[in-house]
């Protein structure tokens, strides 16, 4: 048994090693994932070789077999990912402006697309041909999806038209297990795709350096939202289950010392009682003048007073890399700490 498994693992170790050395493993940032799989498989291979040498049945072999099955799924998907995307991008110049149908990979759990500068549009072809049918499912096991450094990416579409019954039924099977979506360095992306609100498993969204993004809306299951450097963002709405909000303001004055909250954030915190009802923690990085507006007598104190945990930091750092100014507030038990006016003060109730 151990000898057979050892030979089986050895074949995959060799296969992974070959792909790690190829240029195509770098195209979607999967080289690190391949190396992790390789290390795990080499560890299993060593154990199985030892078990075969000792010629006795080790009860741990069953555990290794279960782990091996999971690794095989991951290895196959990542290698398929390299083959599908890498070979197209390396051999066919015209395909550099489009992504392959990665939604067809049935076991894929994690996908990162990085530095695809030629991509301007990601459309329904990314999901695969079966995804457009009501009976199809795109990315059936994908849990994390990340896009990084997509300098020319402008449009993201699932190819769905709201109000069309059949397409709406199909959307219910789009990304059924997606929990985490990260977008970083996508300066030209104008909007999140229509139909993302159908992804009811989505719990965490992080968006960084999306200069043209205007709206984040209708994500009914979202619990964690991180927004950094999205200067054109106007509306963040209908996030009724939001629990953790982490953001930073972008300076609009010449010196970056703006004293005003961005409108989307002000509206979310002031006029969205449903959102605030579940909000547990709010973290803000901002200018010192804006930070001072959250002091107990400041105009923005009533906004944070209702939130259980609040952390506000200035963007300016001291010589040790720490924020020079801060506010830490806890609603229950009541506590308010800041180094802006005095070293520490307490809140009464």
TrEMBL record:
Which residue spans traverse the membrane? none
The family annotation for this protein states: Belongs to the disease resistance NB-LRR family.
Name of the protein in question: Uncharacterized protein LOC103718688 isoform X2
Gene name per UniProt: LOC103718688
| Superkingdom of origin organism | Eukaryota
Record keywords: Leucine-rich repeat, Nucleotide-binding, Plant defense, Repeat
Asked if the Swiss-Prot or TrEMBL record annotates the protein with the keyword Chloroplast, the reply is no
GO MF entries? nucleotide binding
Which residues belong to any copy of the Disease resistance N-terminal domain? 8-88
Pfam families, per this entry? Rx_N
Q: Which GO terms describe its biological process?
A: defense response
- Is Nucleotide-binding one of the keywords? yes
Q: Which InterPro entries match?
A: LRR_dom_sf, RX-like_CC, Rx_N
